[in-house]
Amino acid sequence: MELLRSNLSRVQIPEPTHRIYKHECCISFDTPRSEGGLFVDMNSFLAFGKDYVSWNYEKTGNPVYLHIKQTPKSVPEDRPLKKPTLLAIGVDGGFDNNEPEYEESYSIFILPDFVSLPFPSVELPEKVRIAVDTVVNAVGAERKEQVAAWTAEKKQVSQHALTLQQIKSGIVISPSGWKCAKCDKTENLWLNLTDGMILCGRKNWDGTGGNNHAVEHYKETAYPLAVKLGTITADLEAADVYSYPEDDSVLDPLLAEHLAHFGIDFSSMQKTEMTTAERELDQNTNFDWNRIQESGKELVPIFGPGYTGLVNLGNSCYLAATMQVVFSTHSFISRYFSHQSLKMAFEMAPADPTLDLNMQLTKLGHGLLSGKYSIPATQKDAATGDASQEGIPPRMFKNVIAASHAEFSSMRQQDALDFFLYMVGKVERANSTTPDLDPSRSFKFGIEEKILCPSGKVSYNKRDDCILSLNIPLHEATNKDELEAFNKQKAGKGLEENDIRASDEIVRPRVPLEACLANFVSSEQIEDYYSSALKGRTTAIKTTGLTSFPDYLVLHMRKFVMEEGWVPKKLDVYIDVPDVIDISHMRSKGLQPGEELLPDGVPEEVMESAKPVANEEIVAQLVSMGFNQLHCQKAAINTSNAGVEEAMNWLLSHMDDPDIDAPISHQTSDVDQSSVDTLLSFGFAEDVARKALKASGGDIEKATDWIFNNPNASVSDMDVSSSNSAQTPAQSALPDGGGKYKLFGIVSHMGTSVHCGHYVAHILKEGRWVIFNDSKVGISTDPPKDMGYVYFFQRIDG
């Protein structure tokens, strides 16, 4: 006790502003349930596993720790599972995983000799008792920052509800026996609250659902609100009302009046259909990885180094699938595991290692690759062959990697590709002072665009990227005869699409990956191109190639496209992906003998007309969703008018920008010379760099995008070189080698949109394919090579 009293100055009583960690070690995945328990530093309130707490003592000199140990309570094996009533985890009414309950025990430890004192004890100094009680009763920082419970967002009152105009058509809706007015559908029916039309709902990507008649009716009439028949009961708030302009489920406070207009007495109606939220809940409740992936297959669980599952934190499967593949690359393994120990990363970390990306990447790498946490969840699971693991929760990694990103820091589902690109950028910036150690370089390659003017002269643009995003040319399908026969058979039998799918007889287009790659490098026309040689606008030809081949080639399949009316559609297509590909034919050769560069001298009026202008259709679509007009214009401009989905993603990521409400400015009175110098270092000509910075308000990133999206601006002074000429420093740093690659990773997606559904990863390890589905890991017997969303290839040297 005297030893404790002599160290009282190193004990703090937590303030409300203190972040208290007591559920997970900040440099490993040890928890109070681990064999050695967890030690909470009573000065910094950081937590450490038994093997790591001495490192903290050596670094900080803090000697007093609260030791927390959890042991499972004995519970009946037949404890019934509670049916969830909320789409939530860890809250009343949410999912019950039937996990055991735990008893917690506490004691005080004084380092370096691990002297133990009991707690609670009246003999402890009052300051220690108060400090420990505060820690024990506090909500841990892990829970505050990465809430394990997530719930569906509360519905908002529709902006159209109070002003809804209803047509006096005399239509009276019967209490049952409904059918779509345009087809034979009798389920998933929606009543338009303006004109009383009963129409079927949207068709899902897999053919289930309706035939889109309700949404098509909205496009024709702009009547905004519809209610799902079968969800109307005496509890009107529970009815499923959908607003097409707001693209969301909403509340209609005048729903009783709107229903009475069509003779509907809601008080006597019975519930016969699931609401949208209930259907989502049901899908989550019934989620079964064996059924969704490799259904009917006996998946053999696998444990050990490199076979550690990741706990789903709530819609975090996009992160789990991506990081499993990333940590199967030699570059990330070397950087954050084999060549960097946990102790080394901790010693380099700032005072709070939970906020250090290098520390949390190293923690994640060691967690996934050491095998320490790759063990069956329970002895029962091990005996029955269940692929469940305890897994490791990537909370601290997610907190630090997504800290500055509004979407990735939320609990909503995200696009795995977007996360990969964002993560690679963060890793690159974190390693900017030591580029030789940067593992993200292994994904990078150069892209060169050649523009051929009718004059015969050329210009070249270069940029770096880390993915090849490939369009899918459906006209290159190899099974056209079977598709034609299938469509004729379907038409002849008058079958519904989902009826055929139920019998598993559907024929989908099969497009070779080679056709997608060939499409990427094929020539395309640039309309209204200003030629400095012809001194006028004309049509030019653009071809694209790669100036270098990365260590790891990432291919993104553009399966999500926008149909007419900006309706997203997922292409129902198979991609035939071979185990080995050769992209040698995709290498760009640069300026060739006999080629003449386009001259300088683009007129100022041409430069003026090349300033980015927002696409009015994109802006109108976003405004109709409720976004601010100015914000929508900025989103369209900053995504080069690529499309509604790209602009919306930009909007969601930049809603909190301090200049989001500032007027759009294409010019600044002066250009910062340091920004010019930065663009010069990229290989751009000074006059082009200055014009780009003026057009982009001085923003270097936007200026770079502007140059690449305005080929008229970048002419002969651009970095133009043949393949054997000296390259710029940025390009010379890129890895390069032969064009042969071997498939080793697949991130697959199931669902109607990249922002919903589920992601899993399949990875080739030790000569066999392994499926990583959150915390479940098993040997794959049928990897979905033709159904991937993102493919990862490793270059075959020699």
TrEMBL record:
The UniProt record lists the USP domain at: 308-796
Give start and end of each UBA domain. Answer: 613-654, 670-710
Query: What keywords is this UniProt entry annotated with?
Result: Hydrolase, Metal-binding, Protease, Repeat, Thiol protease, Ubl conjugation pathway, Zinc, Zinc-finger
What InterPro entries does the database record attribute to this sequence?
Answer: Papain-like_cys_pep_sf (IPR038765), Peptidase_C19_UCH (IPR001394), Ub_carboxyl-term_hydrolase (IPR050185), UBA (IPR015940), UBA-like_sf (IPR009060), Ubiquitinyl_hydrolase (IPR016652), UBP13_Znf-UBP_var (IPR041432), USP (IPR028889)
Q: Which GO terms describe its molecular function?
A: hydrolase activity
> What residue stretches are annotated with the UBP-type domain?
156-266
Known SUPFAM superfamilies for this protein?
Cysteine proteinases, RING/U-box, UBA-like
| Main function | Recognizes and hydrolyzes the peptide bond at the C-terminal Gly of ubiquitin. Involved in the processing of poly-ubiquitin precursors as well as that of ubiquitinated proteins.
Family statement drawn from the similarity comment of this UniProt entry: Belongs to the peptidase C19 family.
What the entry lists under PANTHER family is as follows: UBIQUITIN CARBOXYL-TERMINAL HYDROLASE, UBIQUITIN CARBOXYL-TERMINAL HYDROLASE 14
> What's the protein here called?
Ubiquitin carboxyl-terminal hydrolase
**In which organism is this protein found?**
Camelina sativa
Highest classification ranks of the organism:
Eukaryota, Viridiplantae, Streptophyta, Embryophyta, Tracheophyta
